[in-house]
Design brief:
The chain is globular. The longest helix is centred in the middle third of the chain and has 16 residues. 55% of the residues lie in helices and 9% in strands. This is DUF4411 family protein. It holds the Pfam family DUF4411. It comes from Rubritalea halochordaticola.
Length: 163
C-alpha cells in the first residue's frame, strides 16, 4: 500500500508533537518509508509546505528527495479532480467559500491522485457530515471510495515505532 500525506500531517507534527528538536526519529522514519516506496505526497503539497519560511520548509527543501512529491498532472488524476469539482459545486451543503477553497488548495489533488493510483490518503482532518465552512478530505474520500487514515494509523500499518 502507498500512503499519500496531506500537508497537515507534516505541519502538525512539526508544530506540535514531533518537532525536530524533540523527535528527530519521526522525520527519519518518514524518509525511510519513502525509500521503501511506501510514503509519498504530491507536488501541490510540496508547494504549500515550501511557501512557508520555517524549519519545516527548510527540511522539505533540504532533506526530502524531490521524488517524494509525485506529479499530480497525470491524466487520471486530472479526471478525478474534475469529478470532485463537479461534486463539490453540486453540494448545497457547502458554502461558496468552502467550494472556492477546495478548488484552490492541494486537498482535491491529493485525493484525486490517491484515487488514480489506489493509494490511501493520510490526513488529520476528520469526517464531518454536517460541516459547511470547509470540505474535509475524509468527506470526499468517503464519497468516492478512497481510504483516509490519520498519522498514527499509518504508523501502525507500516510498523513505524519511535524509540
Amino acid at each position: 500500500m502507498i500512503y499519500l500525506l496531506d500537508s497537515n500531517i507534516l505541519i502538525t507534527a512539526y508544530q506540535n508533537y514531533y518537532s525536530f528538536d524533540i523527535c528527530p526519529g519521526f522525520w527519519r522514519l518518514l524518509i525511510e518509508q519513502y525509500e521503501k516506496e511506501k510514503i509519498y505526497s504530491i507536488d501541490k503539497v510540496q508547494f504549500e509546505l515550501s511557501s512557508q519560511t520555517d524549519e519545516l520548509a527548510d527540511w522539505v527543501q533540504e532533506e526530502l528527495p524531490g521524488a517524494f512529491f509525485l506529479d499530480s498532472g497525470e491524466d487520471a488524476t486530472i479526471s478525478k479532480f474534475g469529478e470532485y469539482m463537479i461534486w463539490a459545486q453540486q453540494k448545497d451543503q457547502f458554502l461558496d467559500a468552502a467550494k472556492e477553497e477546495f478548488a484552490t488548495v492541494a486537498d482535491a489533488w491529493l485525493i484525486a491522485h490517491a484515487h488514480a493510483i489506489g493509494a490511501t490518503v493520510v490526513t488529520l482532518e476528520v469526517f464531518n457530515p454536517d460541516i459547511k465552512k470547509k470540505i474535509p478530505i475524509p468527506n470526499v474520500c468517503r464519497e468516492f471510495g478512497v481510504e483516509a487514515i490519520d498519522t498514527f494509523e499509518m504508523m501502525r500499518r507500516l510498523g513505524m515505532t519511535l524509540v
